[in-house]
Amino acid sequence: MATKYSSDNDFTIECFVYPLIASSAETPIMADDTNDIGLYIENGDVVFKVSATESIRYPITYSKRVLHLVGVYSVYSISLYVDGRLAASKSIDPDFKFTNTNLSIAIGPTTASGDSFVIDAPAIYRYSLSNASVQRHYGDGNFSAPAIQVVSPDEGVLFSCTDA
Length: 164
Known about the structure:
Layout: E1 11-20, E2 27-32, E3 37-42, E4 45-49, E5 55-59, E6 67-73, E7 77-82, E8 85-91, E9 106-107, E10 116-125, H1 131-140
Antiparallel strand pairs: 1-6, 1-10, 2-3, 2-9, 3-4, 4-5, 6-7, 7-8
């Protein structure tokens, strides 16, 4: 998934996040920062990247709340959903190929000492979620994958797991 061997496979990255990020630096929320693939926050925008040159962004108008973020790669396009709604979408070159040989998605870390965030229900799908699925996940929390809690070593906040 998301490697030079699988550029023709759709995927989705999804999470709920409570960002407390005041800096303008690019902060990986749920991403492989080495390969520039995943969900980020930068300059008050949510960013979904699939490479250093292919990304989309959406400005967060009010950040002191929980956001539901979904990034969808569909071979010829990328889409970003915020709170169950399509926030941005763009076509990508039909010849686009990932250049990385592996993918290591991680949570965080923040790049500035005053920044932090809490993340819940991170999920990665080997297919693109439909509009209806994204809305359902946001609306009622019925995830097709079990909810998990992830903390990047020494940089995250761990909170107790809950059921649906």
